[in-house]
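Catalogue entry: protein

Sequence with per-residue tokens
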Amino acid sequence: MPSSPSPAAAPREESARRAVDRDILRLAIPSLGALVAEPLFLLADSSFIARVSTTSLAGLGLASTVLTTVVGLAIFLAYSTTAAVARSFGAGRMREAISRGVDACWLALLVGALSALALLGAGEPLLAAFGPSPEVLAEAVIYLHISALGLPAMLAVQAATGLVRGLQDATLPLVVAVGGALANIPLNAVLIFGLDLGIAGSAIGTVLCQWGMALVLLGVIVLRARREGIRLTPHASALLAVGRDAVPMFVRTLGLRVVVVAATLVATRLGDVQLAAHQLAITVFTMLSLALDSLAIAGQALTGRYLGAADPRTVHAVTRRLMTWGVGGGAVVSVLLLGASYVVPELFTPDVAVQENLRAALWVLVATQPIAGYVFVLDGVLMGAGDAPYLAKVGAIIAIAILPGAALVAWWAPEGPLGVAALWIACNLLFMVLRAISLGLRVRTDAWMRLG
């Protein structure tokens, strides 16, 4: 007969569960604050520019898609750095952990500078390829060219944040992100309305705040590296090693961005009103995703740390708790969003047509959120485990599978809210379902675990 559980087993399990929850919350709550602060840049821009004109808002949406695609493709600078630093930290190799982060910061500045030059040279034809009206194109070019100057700062913030979070500190990124967001709002208000610079003022204010954030984070890292006696000069071999390790994460992110760009391309074909609503819906989706993404960040840091410490039991415990928190958090977000869908559109824009189209997209998001919670946390766990090759492979396959649906919406081209709803079903709801299946199958095995 199987032996009955020890009377002390249940309290021990409960104590272990609470310890895991504390670890998750210690990282997730500050990360949520930092993540909420980051899209406030775009949220403030969108709210201000919506009151300039719908044409300016559509231009902002188009330029932001290109800009966030560049930044999104470089997100490996944060994710790969968090995982690598956390693993070294968990194994007790502090100097190695900080050195990895310093190399990532140098790579971020280099990639940011090259990306800025590329957008300054090819930004206008790239925007024109989306097929916007001449008025929307003119606004988009202004915003993109000015915002490109902030790319090195944006990417440096990603890498520096990855380093700090890998060291299990989520408070510093919170302080920096909140400070930048709070400075951005009044600065943009003065530049857009006070100085009557319109969309150019929005871009200038955001760039200034991004550079301020980067300088603060990099300054803290320099001081920490000097205390540890770590070199601060860049070395080509180290930069190449960081870049090589990050290639799978780049491919994974590329698959995600292909879907985002395809959706924006279809929204552009549907019309200026639909494009403006699509841009606002993306902003709302980004804001909603933050609570779930904060759990993913905790998953990255804790998975890397405990795998580095060769503690698979705790990794399994963290994964189980994150799955519960992710689905539950997604359900809560769905309920809140359903109520907000009757209020939020009027807060964003006075244009009734844009409001109706935005509401249609929000209703699709209501159904998506519990699935998204599951996807986000498992994505974070596998990133923290360094399972980027698997994420890259399935990400590319799923992106290709989504494209026919987007093409069907473009061919059908339904007018009004129906078109926006169809687009979000094809490029968001279905996308999350396929990702949930692929990630769920992976974590059912131990193939993604590499100890030490």
